[in-house]
Amino acid sequence: MDALPKLDLKGKVSDIEWQRRVDLAACYRLVAHMGWDDLIYTHLSLRIPETDNYLVNAFGVAFDEVTASNLVKVDLDGNILDDSPFTINPAGFTIHSAIHEVRHDAHCVIHLHTNETIAVATQKEGLQSLSQYSMFSLPSLSYHGYEGLAVNDAERKRLQSDLGNTNHMLLVNHGGLTLGPTVGDAFMRFYDMQRACEVQLMLQAAGKDTIAVPKSIQDNIVAQANVVHSGATGGQKAWPSLLRKAWRLDPSFMD
């Protein structure tokens, strides 16, 4: 069995880059803990502030093996910028680079292949207003049709156009995607969308008539959420507790 190379970048990169590395590594571990990972596939990316450089997982490293030091720093074209023994999946970074190129507010992008997001994305009616969780996704939700593996540069423009200014996307036949100004925001947006898809599928499996949330209530949910979070975002409120959870599960993500 081949062991992963041991890296230690703490103190060798800027404090702000190190904190971003810790946040993103924690997010990878939490995604694995939630059962949302897909072996070595799918990606979470995070912009390093004041740069056009991004952190992404090394290709071949499982999500529960990701550490702050073994994340790979790349530019918008996917070129590796640091002295890393790892490579990245260039096809996997295609989606992320396309989004980072046009959405400068989206410092973090999460793209995952969960069963539930694939299933709901592939239903003609898409995500429906059947739970409180869906209320957080529906006001800012877009869809992108399947075009095969993301290796075609021509798809980038279509993906960018379909995404627009939304923060949640369901990719038909493919999975889900969320973005946010922080890791916490992107994670909580995916959490809500994932739970919304799970509940929808459970209700459909029950085969009973359902009660949709009225449009008047849907329109007021965002304002209500601002009251609940006292002007902060759900991601900002939740992330410190999620970091603590990641540390309790396995503090090695901070290496």
TrEMBL record:
> Superkingdom of the source?
Bacteria
Question: What InterPro entries does the entry give?
Answer: Aldolase-II_Adducin_sf (IPR051017), Aldolase_II/adducin_N (IPR001303), Aldolase_II/adducin_N_sf (IPR036409)
Task: Kindly list the GO CC terms recorded for this protein.
Answer: cytoskeleton
One Gene Ontology biological process: monosaccharide metabolic process
Q: Which GO terms describe its molecular function?
A: actin filament binding
Supply the PANTHER family for this chain. Answer: ADDUCIN (PTHR10672), PROTEIN HU-LI TAI SHAO (PTHR10672:SF3)
Please report which protein family the annotation says this sequence is part of: Belongs to the aldolase class II family.
Q: What is this protein called?
A: Class II aldolase
- Organism in which the protein naturally occurs: Enterovibrio norvegicus FF-454
